[in-house]
Design brief:
The protein has three helices and six strands. By secondary structure, it is an alpha+beta fold.
């Protein structure tokens, strides 16, 4: 089993108490869905939560960076921010940040 798969399994195990999750391999990483809402991505063994104008400031206040990549020579920054380290140690922190990501995903669905 590759290191990435082990990290994905670890993250899903940490998230399990929150609800029914679905994981899908995509674009060299993994997408995580809760109730058919795209709430998180895992890329290069890093977890990123969905954010929006309501929640991005909370990530930024903790010094967390958004996921970005280079495509066709241009930097693309997505509305997914690196997860705070406490989510891997405290189940309550994981629940709280997952709720923020889920809220952002719900708002995006309603807007789109």
């Amino acid at each position: 089993m590759s290191r990435s798969n082990e990290f994905v399994e670890f993250v899903i195990e940490q998230m399990t108490p929150v609800g029914r999750l679905r994981v899908r391999a995509m674009f060299g990483g993994y997408g995580i869905y809760l109730d058919d809402c795209f709430i998180a991505i895992i890329v290069d063994d890093r977890l990123y939560f969905k954010a929006d104008s309501v929640t991005a400031g909370e990530f930024e206040a903790k010094g967390l960076s958004p996921f970005s990549y280079v495509a066709r020579g241009k930097l693309v920054t997505m509305q997914y921010f690196e997860a705070p380290s406490e989510v891997f140690e405290e189940s309550e922190a994981m629940r709280l940040w997952l709720q923020k990501a889920y809220g952002a995903a719900i708002r995006a669905k309603k807007a789109g």
